[in-house]
Here is the input.
Amino acid sequence: MNIFVCVKQVPDTETKIIPTSDGSFIETASIKWIMNPYDEYAVEQALLIKTTIPEANVTVVRVGSVKDTEALRTAMAMGADEASHVAAGDNLDSYSIAKALKGAIEKTGRKPDIILAGKQAIDDDCLQVPQILAEMFNLPSVSVIVGFEMNGTTVKVKREVEGGALEVYEIATPVVLACNKGLNTPRYASLPGIMKAKKKPLAQLSLADVGVTDADRRVKYSGFKLPPEKPAGKKFDATDAAKQKDVVAQVVGLLRTEAKVL
Amino acid sequence: MDFALTSEQREIRELALKFARNEMIPLAQEYDEKGTFPTEIFKKAWELGLINVCIPAEYGGPGFTGLDGVIIGESLAYGCMGMNTSFMANDLALLPIVIGGTDEQKKKFLTPFTQEFKIASFCLTEPGNGSDAGGIKTSIKDGGDHWIINGEKMWITNAGYADLFVVYGTIDVTLKHKGISAVIVDAKTAGIVLGKKEDKMGHRSSDTRGVRFNNVKVPKENMLGKPGEGWAIAMSTLDHSRPLVASSALGGAQRALDLSIQYAKERIQFGVPIAKHQAVQFMIAEMGMKIEASRLLVHKAAWMCDQGIKNTEVASYAKAFASDSCMQITTDAVQIYGGYGYSKEYPVEKLMRDAKLIQIYEGTSQIQRLVMSRELLK
Here is the structure.
């Protein structure tokens, strides 16, 4: 049984995001990178499956910058068997990333039974790579899953819908699943795990190796800038009963012309 | 020359810090208030391999360097200096076996600590002998096919929970340092009487007690080295353990700095965050400077030990500088928090109480200066 887990390395949640001076991307030099928190649920789920099916192989796949492969190392320290890393810039669009992930999975020569991913990356919040990947593989997919059960070659998953209700799906594998918080509690990578991870295979690939070119880009970024700073609030004094009418008129006027909410 | 940590060391630090943030910090205040021993957290840390890091790989340990050890120590102390004292006490007790034990002793006593969760205690200090450790009065007498221990030990960390004691005594008090010997004692041996848990100012979640040994019989093969070799083992242990203890001061100081920065940016006085006031800025600058210098000393002292370079002097620099800095930094953190800092509602007063002990145990700051000057003037 072949389980693939797609992980992304994202800026730590406490990172102060600064656009580059030319506005082409964000400053990445001083960023501390972490494994996308939603991907941790995906890794954990793969490892939970492996505890019941010991012969299952868990391969983690990542597309992104070269300087750090720590998300992959962390996943292997948690217990994944091997990893593939496709070297690329950090500002690829979802389509290119999905295509690169597909290429990297195919490069292993193993047919995927289950592909797991986080439901979204907390950096660009696109929420679409798992679905695009499923389309490219022509596989069914379910996103935002909070429950998982394996019965032979079918999986039963639960996903949250509006209003707190749960949808329950039974799907024959192979399948692509995008994981949400609440699915499980990701384990820590143990110290012996960290030591063992060093010896686990990590395949290094380029975008060319997985057949991704500039022509695959569907989204071009026109610029990165911080949202405008919120101006200070305005105070209106309506304590004087005689002036209240004027003050109300002034507030309503500003709500129409400045805030444009009326 | 390279100041960078290896990618493996960065991962180890990340793991230990994550553990400190998720498992230790949320309970640190409550455990401090109630004086709760952190059994569950201790065990969880052991399961992740964060405990007993001094055990060599051939006896089932992680095969870490001293530098790896201080990286873990700093990170766990960031979570709680008090809990970390209990964690670290295992290393302190097992180090004499790592340093002075025979292959057989290491297999017999170290390996079980890697197979199941166990607690060890280091018994050196006595009610009448603290800094003057050479004046130990606990006697170790030859009883034919066993040793007989009699005496009283004081301020023994983890004593109430220990599975194993490493006890320093003397075969002949008139021999002074030359009579000091170390024996490994199973905690279940008859004649061991535990004192009551000390009600301490800080490190309140760690268990500290007196231990009395009344005619405690120990197998002959449990002595580390030959009779009279205990002092050399104890001194060598300190070269290893002082950087580790210093690392805990470093972790506490880093926490105090992080909390101070966070608070200084939030707290508004005179219409601006107090971080905009130079008086606060300078305190924060001082903290950062002392932490960086402490970290360099701690890492160097551990690195020297790993390289087999005599580090007695630098280990004392690290221990005294890091613990004195931690005291100053945690005191300033309370100052930055002002009235709130003095309240137990906020985390910094605990840091200040915890910092004090690191200037005292494992050689006071004054003893460290004695060691330094002795090395410098010889």
Observations:
- Chain B touches chain A at residues 7-8, 10-12, 14-15, 18-19, 47-50, 53, 62-64 (CB under 8 Å).
- Residues 231-377 of chain B form a domain with the Butyryl-CoA Dehydrogenase, subunit A; domain 3 fold (CATH 1.20.140.10).
- The mean pLDDT of chain B is 96.
